[in-house]
């Protein structure tokens, strides 16, 4: 038999091939291990033991294992939170540590788990099964778990757990008051009290000086001007700082500083972020109001103002900020001074007559009169005439003699 | 791996292969050759291969590694085909499920992604190696047409880039959406036909469902098929051209030294009827010169196994530790800042920026220069370089020969230029495509809460 051509390679190459084989085996071991190394296996083991201790081995044996999920089909949510948080529907662990704690029963009565899932209310990333990813504490996930811990990073002045109320208000935005959502309720009352609608459209009506706030929660974080913000660089932090001192965050803004407390500013910021487009299926919000509800008394009072002696100011929109108490017009917001004394007041504030001021307004009124309430010269004459009448009425009510201002 | 003697019968006639199986440890040259003939998977190897072309430091086995990576992308792509849903409503969610709950899902996806990225790198390195060694040049064999294989190689390189690029869109996240936006906008800057080309590519005016299904079909059917066919042809041409150009360089020195000595009877091997003529690896002259060749089985097969399994091992381990990114769902209304093309196109994006000239209100768009003219010129030059290169056949299969010093220098400078711009695009371009030195921090990207 002919010989085989001699080769110098086998000596080294066989060793190299053997090493490659070993590395391949190690690599295979590594990826098998990495696929199994998940925290949920530990949590499930622990929970099983807890059930065994408390209710016996029979109960523990039927605790489901493996990846678990709530599939809320209507909301397109696959929430795998219950893979670790197995006790959610398991009575008897109300006082246990997370993730072994039973969910409070009351909210689940109105919001069944199988319809709502978990992340609809709590935030976080339902798809994930590892703690950091599931709690949304990772890059490229903008809906973190709205937890007490997150509230503490913002040093919330009120309820540290309040951030979750933002998600309540996605559906409950037209409620005047929502049970259990104290911060959002506070913010809603502030919106009415401070008259935000004077400048901002909210749910379809309001002024046009400021931006429309109806879906302000949709504004991408990238579009916030954060250069003047110190501390946390988030949309929420921006809103808090902006509510506390608008001018410090946004140069040249005409938004007044309402001297809000930290708690108020934080509550309002939560409300802002909660105002998002609402894609909830109709049956989830059956019976809930679809617009801002107004009580019969409010509607009656407004109608009375419109037809009363100060009706012109109501129709023109001045009453949004200004009361004209002498004519029975009461502003819901009372941001500006009472116009009953405008004839006198303008002189002392701006050093010019009412006629001159309305012709060439300064400050906030220059913005309002150029952008929101645009008056023709004839309308301005009407305004001056009406304000004189209001001042006369004011003096009559106060019992002081009528004097002609223009001759003063 | 010896087979039991029962199965080992004597050949009854020449050309009749008595062994039903092939031997991984042949005892004779005949047995080694039989392996090639009797095993389908080995039919593309020659019976013998020149030692010079086996050298690690000649080819670095980059072609084999590219093929191994291609094989890995196909292998890892098959399970992904069952799991991924090419719909704009479902794609992102299906990738999330692959990442989080499919058994080995995140590893399979990582293998697919990492081998695809490595394939771009290794195919490019293979191209650089072939250029620097002048391996597209014909040597002393008759009927060699290595230029054709070079052109096929260039097309395969472009197919690799396009394969990677079409895969980029499929997760339907922000990274995908905006990388493809940047990429297809560059295409639209071609004068006259640009907008039409973009429309054809993305199936409309906006990147939407039509784009996704187009890229998907290109990615999973058309381009892999094209690359597979070209790969087969590429290998067939290597055989037909007498193996690697290094073998020619080696044969020349053998020819030189043996010319004066005895004349051996020449015989032309027509291995499997493929290799025509007297290409150096198959002439008796070189075959019979002692110590210039080894048997393909098992020496070449063992090396091929090392390169392939080694590649698989490295990719497998990398895939455990390097997570595949998945950004926010695609959103046409929010542009991430900065929006970047895939990394292998970043040098073009960088040139596009640098050649965009603004004089007052007049803007000369750099996309045409940087995105069309320059890469078009480079690809064109590269394709036709074998016919431009005027060096002698002695420069074939030799690292950095004196003959080709100037062209190699220019080629290396172009490669360096591309690498430098890629680095700038990858690492030094921050928000608004502003320039940041490595030690300068980028502004934070704000979050929602």
Structure, described:
The complex is a heterodimer of chains A (408) and B (449). Chain A has 408 residues and is mainly alpha-helical. Chain A is 45% helix and 2% strand. In chain A, strand 1 (70-72) and strand 2 (77-79) form a beta hairpin. Chain A is elongated, with a radius of gyration of 32 Å. Chain A starts with 9 loop residues before the first helix and ends in a 10-residue tail after the last helix. Chain B is mainly α and 449 residues long. In chain B, a hairpin with a 2-residue loop joins strand 3 (357-359) and strand 4. The N and C termini of chain B lie far apart (65 Å). Residues 259-288 of chain B have low confidence and may be disordered. Classes of the chains: A mainly alpha (408), B mainly alpha (449). The interface between A and B is large, with 53 and 55 residues.
Layout of secondary structure:
The complex is a heterodimer of chains A (408) and B (449).
Chain A lengths: L9 H27 L2 H17 L1 H5 L8 E3 L4 E3 L25 H6 L2 H4 L2 H4 L8 H4 L13 H6 L11 H7 L10 H13 L6 E2 L2 E2 L28 H10 L1 H4 L12 H13 L21 H12 L3 H6 L25 H9 L3 H6 L3 H9 L5 H22 L10
Antiparallel strand pairs in A: 1-2, 3-4
Helix pairs in contact in A: 9-13, 10-13, 11-13
Chain B lengths: L28 H10 L9 E3 H4 L1 H4 L2 H22 L7 H10 L4 H28 L13 H24 L4 H14 L6 H9 L6 H32 L4 H14 L25 H5 L4 E3 H26 L24 H9 L2 E3 L2 E3 L1 H23 L16 H24 L21
Antiparallel strand pairs in B: 1-2, 3-4
Helix pairs in contact in B: 4-6, 4-13, 5-6, 6-7, 6-13, 7-8, 7-10, 7-15, 14-15, 14-16
């Amino acid at each position: 038999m002919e010989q085989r051509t001699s080769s110098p390679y086998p000596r080294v190459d066989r060793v190299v091939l053997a090493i490659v084989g070993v590395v391949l085996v190690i690599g295979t071991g590594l990826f098998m291990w990495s696929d199994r190394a998940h925290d949920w296996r530990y949590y499930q083991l622990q929970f099983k033991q807890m059930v065994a201790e408390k209710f016996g081995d029979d109960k523990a044996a039927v605790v489901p294992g493996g990846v678990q999920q709530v599939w809320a089909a209507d909301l397109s949510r696959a929430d795998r939170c219950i893979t670790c948080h197995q006790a959610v529907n398991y009575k008897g662990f109300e006082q246990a540590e997370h993730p072994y704690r039973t969910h409070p029963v009351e909210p689940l009565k109105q919001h069944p788990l199988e319809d709502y899932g978990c992340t609809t209310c709590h935030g976080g990333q339902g798809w994930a099964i590892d703690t950091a990813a599931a709690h949304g504490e990772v890059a490229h996930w903008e809906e973190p778990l709205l937890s007490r811990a997150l509230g503490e990073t913002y040093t919330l002045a009120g309820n540290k757990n309040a951030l979750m109320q933002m998600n309540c208000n996605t559906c409950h935005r037209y409620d005047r008051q929502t049970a259990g959502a104290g911060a959002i309720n506070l913010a809603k009352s502030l919106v009415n009290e401070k008259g935000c609608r004077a400048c901002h459209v909210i749910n379809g009506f309001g002024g046009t000086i400021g931006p429309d706030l109806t879906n302000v929660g949709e504004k991408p974080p990238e579009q916030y001007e954060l250069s003047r913000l110190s501390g946390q660089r988030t949309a929420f932090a921006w809103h808090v700082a902006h509510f506390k001192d608008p001018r410090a965050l946004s140069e040249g803004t005409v938004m007044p500083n309402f001297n809000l407390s930290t708690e108020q500013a934080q509550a309002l910021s939560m409300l802002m972020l909660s105002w998002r487009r609402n894609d909830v299926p109709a049956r989830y919000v059956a019976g809930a109001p679809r617009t801002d509800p107004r009580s019969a008394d409010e509607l009656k009072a407004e109608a009375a103002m419109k037809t009363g002696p100060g009706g012109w100011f109501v129709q023109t929109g001045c009453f949004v900020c200004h009361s004209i108490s002498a004519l029975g017009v009461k502003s819901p917001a009372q941001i500006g001074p009472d116009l009953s004394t405008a004839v006198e007041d303008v002189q002392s504030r701006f050093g010019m007559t009412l006629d001159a001021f309305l012709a060439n307004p300064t400050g906030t009124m220059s913005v309002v009169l150029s952008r929101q309430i645009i008056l023709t010269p004839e309308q301005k004459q009407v305004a001056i005439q009406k304000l004189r009448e209001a001042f006369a009425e004011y003096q009559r009510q106060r019992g002081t003699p009528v004097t002609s201002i223009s001759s003063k | 791996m010896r087979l039991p003697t029962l199965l080992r019968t004597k050949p009854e006639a020449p050309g009749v292969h008595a062994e039903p199986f092939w031997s991984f440890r042949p005892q004779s040259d005949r047995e080694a050759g039989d392996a090639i003939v009797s095993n389908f998977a080995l039919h593309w190897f020659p019976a013998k291969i020149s030692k010079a072309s086996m050298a690690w430091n000649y080819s670095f086995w980059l072609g084999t590694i590219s093929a191994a990576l291609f094989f890995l992308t196909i292998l890892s792509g098959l399970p992904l085909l069952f799991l991924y849903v090419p719909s704009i409503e479902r794609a992102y969610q299906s990738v999330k499920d692959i990442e989080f709950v499919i058994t080995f899902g995140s590893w399979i996806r990582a293998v697919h992604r990492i081998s695809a990225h490595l394939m771009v790198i290794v195919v490019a390195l293979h191209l650089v190696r072939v250029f620097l060694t002048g391996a597209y040049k014909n040597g002393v064999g008759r009927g060699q047409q290595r230029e054709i294989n070079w052109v096929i190689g260039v097309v395969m390189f472009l197919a690799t880039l396009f394969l990677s690029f079409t895969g980029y869109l499929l997760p339907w996240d922000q990274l995908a959406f905006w990388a493809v936006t940047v990429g297809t906008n560059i295409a639209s800057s071609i004068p006259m036909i640009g907008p039409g080309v973009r429309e054809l590519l993305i199936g409309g005016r906006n990147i939407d469902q039509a784009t996704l299904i187009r890229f998907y079909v290109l990615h999973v059917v058309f381009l892999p098929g094209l690359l597979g066919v070209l790969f087969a042809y590429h290998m067939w041409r290597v055989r037909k051209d007498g193996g690697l150009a290094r073998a020619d360089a080696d044969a020349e020195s053998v020819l030189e030294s043996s010319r004066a000595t005895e004349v051996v009877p020449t015989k032309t091997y027509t291995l499997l009827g493929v290799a025509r003529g007297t290409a150096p690896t198959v002439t008796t002259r070189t075959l019979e010169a002692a110590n210039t060749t080894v048997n393909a089985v098992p020496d070449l097969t063992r090396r091929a196994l090392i390169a392939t399994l080694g590649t698989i091992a490295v990719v497998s381990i990398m895939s455990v530790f390097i997570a595949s990114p998945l950004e926010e769902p695609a959103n046409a209304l929010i542009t991430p800042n900065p929006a970047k093309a895939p990394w292998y196109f970043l040098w073009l994006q960088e040139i596009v920026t640098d050649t965009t000239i603004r004089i007052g209100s007049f803007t000369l768009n750099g996309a045409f220069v940087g995105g069309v003219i320059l890469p078009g010129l480079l690809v064109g030059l590269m394709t036709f370089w074998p016919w431009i290169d005027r060096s002698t056949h002695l420069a074939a299969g030799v690292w950095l020969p004196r003959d080709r010093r100037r062209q190699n220098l220019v080629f290396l400078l172009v490669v360096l230029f591309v690498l430098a711009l890629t680095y700038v695009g990858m690492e030094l371009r921050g928000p608004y495509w502003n320039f940041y030195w490595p030690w300068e921090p980028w502004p934070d990207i704000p979050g929602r809460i």
